[in-house]
Design goal:
269 residues, alpha+beta, 4-stranded antiparallel β-sheet, 7 helices, 32% helix, extended
Length: 269
């Protein structure tokens, strides 16, 4: 099998040609060859997707030399390349950079238009990474995406996405919680059981802390006398409140569990 990708920028078209007879891959039917064929088809199809998306994106580039934003005049300064991580993989995009005559922050119309100003990964990539992050470590997330996705962010990029989202959630925590509770409906009329549970554990954190207990009475070296420690323990707790429906009658020797109608978790560390 042989695959060829051609791009015609005049007609704005991307063509993918697959030749089943030529090429070194797919000469015989084996498990390894089947895997190679799947990998080839995946690579060329994603390459076509990247080029098609890039060409579609570039049609919205601003070709003016002077633009006015919020009453401020920005002039074209230069073209600048930037890599974006899309669902099809990484693409390199040349964007037009604008700046005021007095200097200051730059303005990139293309980045602003699709909400990628200051961002590396597209929205759908960030959503996927953040969805996986609570279920596994950044290293495991990186390995999983390398096996299952066309986009493959590094461990550092994954950690940066998590940190950025964490800061955003902390900044707008009250607003987000109020918005969630506004659309929350409690099934009070159907509820028959209200259950509450809690649990906790002491977690060692890689954060400086202070020694517990009485200080050393006899003079020793500075390290021994110091009350600072390289790590510390924090108590992590979680409480769960749940509403349940009708309690079924006993069936033989086992008791059926009532349907859970609502659950809310509260965590603290």
């Amino acid at each position: 099998m042989k695959a060829e990708l051609s791009i015609d920028r005049e007609t704005k078209s991307v063509k993918l040609l697959l030749n089943w007879k030529d090429g070194k891959i797919g000469k015989q039917l084996t498990a390894d060859e089947a895997e190679n064929v799947v990998s080839l088809l995946e690579d060329v199809s994603q390459a076509a997707n990247r080029e098609a998306f890039k060409e579609w994106l570039m049609q919205f580039e601003c070709h003016k030399d002077v633009i006015v934003i919020d009453g401020k005049t920005y002039r074209f300064k230069m073209d600048s390349q930037k890599e974006f991580l899309t669902k099809f993989g990484a693409i390199m995009v040349s964007r037009r950079i604008f700046q005021q005559d007095t200097g200051g922050p730059i303005y990139v119309p293309l980045d602003v238009a699709w909400e990628m100003d200051g961002e590396f990964a597209t929205r759908e990539v960030r959503e996927c990474v953040l969805y996986m992050s609570p279920l596994m470590t950044p290293a495991e997330t990186e390995e999983c995406l390398q096996k299952a996705a066309a986009f493959r962010p590094s461990r550092t990029a994954i950690q940066n996405m998590i940190q950025e989202m964490g800061q955003l959630l902390e900044q707008y925590e009250d607003i987000l919680l109020d918005e969630v509770r506004l659309h929350e409906e409690l099934p009070i009329e159907k509820a028959r059981v209200f259950a509450v549970s809690g649990d906790g554990v002491n977690v060692r954190l890689n954060t400086p802390g202070k020694k517990k207990g009485r200080p050393t009475e006899r003079p020793k070296d500075d390290d021994a006398m110091s009350r600072e420690t390289p790590s510390c323990f924090k108590n992590a707790m979680v409480g769960v409140c749940g509403l349940y429906g009708e309690v079924p009658e006993n069936t033989g020797s086992r008791t059926s569990t009532p349907e859970r109608l609502y659950g809310s978790d509260v965590t603290r560390i």
